[in-house]
Amino acid sequence: MLSNSDYILIIEDSKAETHLLLQTLKMHNFPARVRVIHSGQDALKELSSLKGNLPGMILLDLRLQDIDGIEILHELKKDPETEAIPVIIRTGSHDPRDKKRCMELGVIDYMYKSMEFESVEQQVISLNQHWDSFPRKD
Prior knowledge:
Helices cover about 45% and strands about 15% of the residues. The chain has helices spanning about 15-25, 40-50, 70-80, 95-105, 115-135, and strands at about 5-10, 35, 55-60, 85-90, 110. Strand 1 (about 5-10), helix 1 and strand 2 (about 35) form a beta-alpha-beta unit. The two termini are about 15 Å apart.
């Protein structure tokens, strides 16, 4: 059974972007297990059923096909069980209003998507730093 210290949850509907991100995480020896969910509805269902077995961090796409990532973020932040999970947004949206709303909801970082390896690599380095900066349950 995974514990709070064991995994990062990636909520991303693009399989190509997920593949590039996972390969880059692997290349950089990301120190946690990774769980991927490809839809917002599945993410909400899973998060509501994981009480006591929550991810140590969430990487969330804002523009999912079935639900807005900001709606997921609202749900996370209003639930006392999930409100403290660090959330990083990774999105193609360059709308400053999206970034402002996410920051107001307490995300720890806001990353712009890219399919260029160097950009994704820098994001993974940043993810590693964020992962290392949060205390974990053992």
